[in-house]
Design brief:
The chain is built from 23 helices and 31 strands. By secondary structure, it is of the alpha/beta class. One zinc ion binds next to α4.
Length: about 800
């Protein structure tokens, strides 16, 4: 997948002058962007040879520098092909051409050593899926790398997860400790070889090796660790696999027993588990796969793609425990040679979930992995190439004709996202608390970190601070401005406020969401922002989450929101949706709720609820919230889907997963105007749901009407705000818009009403996208508006 619209073919920079009129020409070319670690220099070398040019190419601190001399026509064609035939993983930002006087003695074209002066503007590459040529070599019994799981070339293999520093050369990667054998060195030094300067290149004679460990970390004496691991997986054992950015826990996805054992040991009760299938055909046996989804599955980033399950049984059955009660499965294709070998050996889908206990970050170092995963895995399949940077798998889905990244990590990180404007000084944007991601800004480029999990976990917090230090080192960048959320309890906020000698930019949570959506689309304009999520700290100290803003990158006005209801028991109401259902029923019916002939009311613990509601009336432990996420929770509980959740957004996911009969009507919802703000009477939605349940309308149909009602509320509120403001552009953001059922309805409805709609693609609508929004806002601020 092309990660977004910001990557374009090289353009001539401002210094390109008219080429000379003589027959011979010479030019100096600077190519900026992701051009190191993607086979760019050998590509330039071969191109120069093809056109019989003299000169040189080298890696510099700003990108790749080319000095080329030859026939004028040849130079012209060289420049054209430099743009049109570059390696697939190169991401050229800018190509600047300066014409020079021909030397008439440029000599044969050569590759020169890296130069390292001046301020760096390098772009580290992301990890690259093994290429088809390497796969063919691995499968060829006559090839010296036959069956070797660590082969790679200039166009594929590990990058971000093995780089210690830039520029990208072997000595600054975790391959530094492996001395190349004569044959590998020969390839590495030969400009015509496809492994010319392939920094992590390796072969069975000189490269990393596999080993099999038992649950206690002792090396097992087996002839073929790979085959032994395959055999263990076939018999239902759990194997921890060392991968690119950390450990996976793998087991046979078709074995109910293996899957439930993994769940039990991992203390992961209900969260869906990702799976790896051998091929696109394998994915199609389990799920319905559109062309767009197929392209996303096969893209070089190889994310986990959420795909709709086939209803009719076909191919192999997946154990129920993989994704309980959900309509989607998370599937990915292999991306390392080792994974290809494993899946070929097994020929059935594997559960491949992050190697961690519940909320901890992914394990990536042997000792740590054995200590933490020893109670989960029966065996460890490891290798001796160190992982420098931990990095989870990315998660994406295909929505509304385009990819939507839900968790941005391996394969995407650290590719930069380009802002519409330039930051005067380096910025650190700290992001949020859950699904945490931070960002560093250099000029117009935003470098987002990989997904780093929930900072409430001590290990995750340490991983987060380590990752900040590492990326700063990699980019050689010291932030002068630090942007952060308003929530005083977020660890990212506390961290930001402790930093001295920097300017602080506090950014409201939902403003950051909308700014993130703008930056995701390369837009710098004032829009109607619809920011719906579970929780975000409001400027009034309340819990916001169903917000309508008039916003741009400089500021926002809260012009509408969902009606506020109490969250009985505070945080507990997030884990126990029944509390929200009761709070909404009370908002809709008052004391008359007790008389409703609802299953929910019958199972409600009256005495517990009486205590809670009395406390809420007195304002005790019941913060007021306008959260859209809590409304989803309440409706899910009323419908009997669940009263308690094991993880954030579980109830909302199950509501989305209901069957989708045509929504024949929407519930009547009042939009009130209070102090110039539009208040959506969400209690009216709950009343509509209750009346349907009492009338015996099926759960699936209520779910459809509920989603349609929310889309309708969006269109009506935006219509009213358009009249007030004259704005006709809408940005949709916040975790609720991971729900593609709602997203599709809202985008369609707004489109029909004449709005231009922006949605997320490159970064998640959830809190994983906050850092981009904070970064865009901080980059836009003038110095006099920044608080010290
Ligand atoms: Zn390759
Ligand atoms: Zn070798």
């Amino acid at each position: 997948m092309a990660p977004g619209p910001c990557y374009r073919a090289p353009q001539m920079g401002p210094s390109a002058a008219v080429p000379p009129t003589e027959d011979r020409a010479r030019c100096r070319i600077l190519v900026e962007g992701v051009v190191q670690g993607v086979g760019f220099r050998p590509f330039v070398y071969r191109l120069a040879e093809k056109h019989r040019l003299g000169g040189s190419v080298q890696n510099g601190r700003h990108g790749v520098l080319i000095d080329a001399e030859g026939d004028r026509d040849a130079i012209t064609r060289f420049l054209e092909e430099l743009g049109s035939t570059a390696p697939a993983s190169a991401r050229t930002r800018r190509t600047t051409v300066t014409w020079a006087t021909p030397l008439h003695d440029a000599g044969a074209f050569r590759i020169e050593p890296s130069v390292g002066d001046g301020q760096p503007t390098l772009f580290p590459a992301s990890d690259l899926t093994v290429c088809t040529t390497c796969l063919a070599e691995m499968g060829d019994p006559g090839n010296r790398r036959h069956g070797y799981p660590f082969l790679n070339c200039t166009e594929c293999g590990p990058r971000f997860t093995i780089i210690r520093a830039m520029p990208y050369d072997r000595e600054r990667t975790s391959m530094a400790s492996f001395a190349m054998c004569a044959a590998c060195r020969e390839e590495y030094k030969n400009p015509r070889d496809r492994r010319f300067h392939a920094e992590p290149t390796a072969c069975p004679a000189c490269g990393p090796r596999l080993a099999l460990l038992d649950a206690g970390g002792r090396v097992l004496d087996v002839i073929n660790p790979l085959q032994a691991a395959v055999a263990a997986l076939q018999t239902g054992q759990i194997v921890a696999l060392k991968g690119l950015g950390g450990y996976h826990l793998a087991c046979d996805a078709t074995s109910t027993e293996a899957v439930s054992r993994l769940r039990r040991r991992k203390a992961r009760d209900a969260k869906p588990l990702a799976m790896m299938v051998r091929s696109l055909d394998g994915a199609r046996q389990l799920c319905v796969v559109s062309d767009g989804e197929a392209a996303l599955l096969q893209s070089v980033a190889r994310p986990i793609v959420l795909l709709e399950r086939r209803t009719s049984p076909a191919g192999q059955d997946v154990a129920d425990g993989v994704a309980p009660r959900l309509r989607h499965l998370g599937l990915m294709l292999p991306y390392t040679p080792l994974q290809y070998l494993l899946l070929e050996g097994l020929d059935r889908p594997l559960v491949m979930t992050s190697g961690n206990r519940s909320d901890e970050p992914i394990a990536y170092q042997e000792g740590d992995a054995v200590e933490r995963l020893g109670g989960i895995a029966d065996l460890f399949l490891v290798h001796d190439r160190p992982i420098e940077v931990r990095c989870d798998d990315s998660v994406a889905r295909f929505a509304d004709g385009a990819p939507l990244v839900l968790r941005r990590a391996r394969g995407y990180v650290p590719l930069a996202i380009t802002l519409a404007h330039e930051a005067a000084e380096p910025i650190l944007a700290c992001g949020g608390e859950l699904k945490s991601v931070f960002a560093l800004v250099r000029g117009r480029e935003v470098f987002l970190s990989q997904h780093l999990g929930d900072l409430g976990d001590e290990r995750a917090y340490r991983a987060w601070t380590d990752a900040i230090a590492h990326l700063q080192r990699l980019l050689e960048l010291t932030p002068r401005v630090v942007a952060h959320d308003l929530h005083p309890g977020y660890r990212a906020t506390v961290y930001a406020r402790m930093l001295d000698g920097v300017r602080h930019v506090p950014v409201q949570h939902h403003h950051a969401h909308i700014a993130s959506c703008l930056a995701d689309n390369g837009v710098d304009a004032r829009v109607i922002g619809v920011a719906w999520d579970g929780t975000g700290y409001g400027t009034d100290g309340h819990v916001w989450g169903g917000e309508f803003l008039l916003a741009d990158l400089e500021g926002f006005e809260r012009v509408g929101s969902f009606q506020e209801v109490p969250m009985p028991g505070g945080e507990a109401a997030i884990r126990e949706p029944w509390r929200m259902a009761a709070a909404f029923l009370h908002a809709a019916y008052g004391e008359a709720m007790d008389g409703l002939d609802l299953a929910f009311v019958q199972r409600l613990d009256r005495s517990a609820w009486r205590l809670l509601s009395r406390a809420a009336e007195q304002g005790l432990n019941a913060p007021r919230t306008s959260s859209a996420g809590r409304l989803f929770d309440a409706v899910a509980s009323l419908l009997g889907l669940r009263d308690r959740v094991d993880f954030e957004a579980q109830a909302a996911m199950e509501l989305e997963a209901l069957a989708e009969p045509e929504a024949d009507r929407v519930y009547a919802v009042n939009l009130e105007q209070i102090h110039g703000r539009t208040i959506v009477r969400t209690a009216d939605i709950v009343r509509g749901v209750v009346e349907d349940i009492l009338a015996g309308v099926g759960v699936d149909r209520v779910g459809s009407r509920f989603h349609a009602t929310l889309a309708d509320v969006t269109v009506r509120t935006c219509g009213r705000l358009r009249e007030q403001s004259g704005l006709d552009r809408v940005a949709l953001s916040g975790g609720v818009f991971q729900n593609i059922r709602l997203l599709r309805l809202a985008v369609d409805g707004l489109g029909r009403a004449g709005f231009q709609v922006y949605t997320h693609h490159q970064v998640p609508p959830n809190d994983g996208g906050l850092a981009l929004g904070q970064a865009a806002i901080a980059a836009r601020l003038r110095e006099d508006r920044i608080s010290l």
